Amino acid sequence: MIVLKFGGTSVRDAEWIGRVLDIAHQELPRSPLLVSSAMAGVTDDLLSMASSASRGHSEDALQLLESVRERHMETCSELLECREGPTHNALDRLMSDVRHLIQGVSLVRECTPRTQDAVVSFGERLSTVLIAAAAEARGISVRLLDSRQFVRTDEHFTNASCMLEPSYRLIREGIHPLPGMLLIAQGFIGATADGVTSTLGRGGSDFSATIFGAALQAEEVQIWTDVDGILTADPRIVTDARQVKSLSYSEAAELAFFGAKVVHPFTIQPAVELGIPVTVRNTGRPDRAGTRIQAESETHGVRALATRKGITVITIHSSRMLNAYGFLSRIFAVFERFRISVDLVATSEVSVSMTVDNALNLGPAITELEQYGRVQIEERQAILSLVGRNLWRDPSFVTRVFVALASVPLRMISLGSSDINLGLVMAESSVDTAMRTLHGEFFG
Ligand code: ADP
Ligand code: ASP
Ligand code: MG
User: Fold this and answer.
1) Hey, which of 40, 320, 350, 405 has its CA 20 to 30 A from 264?
2) Which numbered atom of ligand 1 lies nearest the CA of 259?
């Protein structure tokens, strides 16, 4: 079987959904499971409705809801070539469920993470109803699934962790792909053991795709988006970024983790265990091969660059660090308690600097850290990562990086822990220029 995941950009309107169905139709002999995101922008709209309603602006929320409703209805009419019918009715029922939720939020003027997940889950539920109906209208035999019955998560609503083993079991028991039949499921959404709707975090549909793929031992997971694959840099920053033909699992995971938004950071993990190849391809240009992510990459050296903004550098200065056992573990225990993940670390005899990008619980965590020494905070930093194999074995590599960035003040450097990533921390305001400079140096 094969998993085909389509992002919001690929299901943005009737024309693009038509392309999606062309691709799915071609893959019918390979027992496809299609995983879809919400139509582009719909998740943002649902979040903004929930936020307006919780601040008492229910008129704004309902107005936005009406525009989302119209967009789905019009796309439906265009795809099915009729202005009403059972699919329009099904969409309307879902819309009226969202309306009730939004009205509830505006009454209590509060939107808990759990309620927020209930609201945003409608994006994927709506888009998949549309795609399923359009596929049936083309004569494809379809089974529309509800991912909440298969993707089991914990209760960290809005950013839930998937419990892989229980999910795999549910998927294997309940889903049986067949040649000639198109299975359709929602990305991004799941449910807790109590059946409460949850989501896997923004961009989580890619992760859903590999969860289904690993459970069903897919021969391939294809991630269809609006660019030709993984590029050497974010094309919105570097206009001449080039397509990367293939990457190893660890290179792709590193790029995703350090900011290449094209795939969600957790996507690779389920695929690695079974060695399932993941390809990233362009729905707008299906003739292109895209990027193949697999066990081994073919070349050495820098493969791509990524940036992550909104980083905070925390430095703890303490003479108690000198020769002290367990100092770092006590500091990391504080981050663990507050569920803050630390990405890069640099230490000296009397200080330790760390980068974090979760500003949510930072205040109380810092108060606790102050018992270990003087805490210094630098906000609005960014990490620029160069990813590739055996980077530091080439002595000229580091020199080229530092000469190219001679005029950029660097705050922290991390190389060596994985041998596939050089991480440079600098002010957010310098990072786009630094990325273009390094791209020119290595790919120009
Ligand atoms: P989808 O709706 O398909 O999930 P996303 O917006 O989540 O699409 O991801 C695709 C976008 O990621 C591209 O349009 C591109 O602007 C951005 N992007 C950032 N870094 C990269 C990169 N290294 N390679 C390709 N695309 C990237
Ligand atoms: N629709 C969700 C989002 O916009 C999930 C996804 O697209 O992957 O974040
Ligand atoms: Mg995405």
Assistant:
1) 405
2) 20
